[in-house]
Amino acid sequence: MSALAPAVSLAGRPDFGAIASWVTPDASVLDLGCGDGLLLASLEASRGAKGYGVEIDDANVLACVRRGVNVIQGDLERGLQGFDAGSFDYVILSQTLQTMRHTEEIVLEMLRVGRQAIVTFPNFGHWQARWAVAFGGRMPVSKTLPYQWYDTPNLHLCTVRDFEQFCADHSIRIRERIVLHEGRRVGWLPNLLGSLAVFRFEKQH
Amino acid sequence: MHHDQTIVPRSVGAVAPRRMRFAAPLALAGGATIDGYSLLYETYGRLNAARSNAVLVCHALNASHHVAGYYADDPDNVGWWDNMIGPGKPLDTERFFVVGVNNLGGCFGSTGPASIDPKTGRPYGSSFPVVTVEDWVEVQARLADRLGIRRWAAVMGGSLGAMQALQWTISYPDRIAHALVIAAAPKLSAQNIAFNEIARQAITTDPDFHGGNYYAHGVVPKRGLRVARMIGHVTYLSDDAMMERFGRSLRSGKLGFHFDVDFEIESYLRYQADKFSAYFDANTYLLITRALDYFDPAAAHDGNLAAALAPARAKFLVVSFTSDWRFASPRSREIVKALLDNRRDVSYAEIDAPHGHDAFLLEDPRYHALVRAYFENVAREVGADRLAAGAGAAPLDEGEPVEAAAGGGFAA
After folding, report:
1. What is the pLDDT of residues A62-77, one digit of tens each?
2. A66 and chain B: CB distance < 8 Å anywhere?
3. Which of A195, B78, B176, B190 is the most core-located residue (most Cβ within 10 A)?
4. Euclidean distance between CA atoms B276 and A59, whole angstroms
């Protein structure tokens, strides 16, 4: 790829900006469910990261190769057995956690392979989601939850508080949390006003 | 991302092999030395002025230097990877200078067991030394020297050809920018070796084998070669692909209650075996299956493939096929893992194709799109642009023309 830096636009993925701000220069990064490789290309350009993506979808694998991003085709549901313990600085799972069948396993696998893990997910605790269910009596459809209930890849939706409880239950220490809405950071009542959560965490030592 | 001009993929057209003679002795991995030898090779496309656009395509068990195009006097003899290589094809000869070579020990015109040993004036036969993948890479490097290619933009191969690409990254890390390692394994399994041994036994126990010196007797161990080809062929196909193509179809519509051909699959195997045994040299079959058996770069590092690949500096594209049971996907993942351990640039694709090991030779849109995209990046990186008419460089040494075109059109 020629002149990556200016060519990589993170428009439409506000969580990528938060992730990029956390990744230290020259870090090694494993991006699980890396899609078309946009985040990796951005991390390589802006942070000098050495990155690899894992992706199951043929079209996305092709898009990564086209972008010149390292991609390993594979199924996350089968775990990360191809990756050694502690072999990456960061293991990232952006907006994929909620689509996983084996949610608990993948988070633990991320912490086995990475010194730190970063996940982003749509916050089901956002007021619009609560409103849709509580008063509309309908499953929410929004920017961060754009699917109809009968046609959604999402299997395990959770809230900011759910995830924090999950971490507490699994001896996971949260290092940083950013909750966003419409690309802006939400400081007040994040579980109510934020639609997209970004967590950085590690094993409790 | 895509190129502006869309070229309709087409054949490189009529091609002709050339011969390069090497006088300097070559010490082989097995301890023997071969005094002089010659190689048959073909090239497609043109070297650019910087000589940075050369791609070496390595052949597998039973293929040759005839990789793409056809021979003017034998238009049906189409190169074994013609669907991959040509103008506008995934490996685009409008941008790249592609080299195909018949390996040492081969039977398509390069020095091999059927060649005359200058010391005796008779065919080498059983005295031809066992050659390894490392030896082939050494020989290919000498060919590159003669052609004036300091560094390959890429070395590409499937199966045994992929092993050569892998070996290039270890033997000559600074002479290869990219390795395309397709349908590969980092070493054969016991089962793989077992299949090779069955094939070799079929050949060496044929009464016409004469200890490898059958040339003097005016015969070839045709029965052995036939069985070797049959067993090989079955392992290159998947169960599903065979069932889909042949099922239990009967040749004459009903069972014959005899041991001649009943089923279509039998007829097919016999046809393939006849065809193969008519053009392939039995000693070469022994040699090449042995080279496969011996390939194990990790062996010198206590089985640690990552340590074996530590010298590699190339970038890698590794591709496997889900239905390939001969070199199954987990074998490719071993290579990927070792490259990851070394933090090398590597992409890995697992193509969901039904055809088995032979899938690497077939036209699959996902597979070809991937190779095309990869080569587009290689082209950008090494400056392999479409050359204007008359632009570019000639190979340092042009070799010699070859009279009779020799080349197998089939490969695995």
Report:
1. 999 999 999 999 999 9
2. yes
3. B176
4. 38
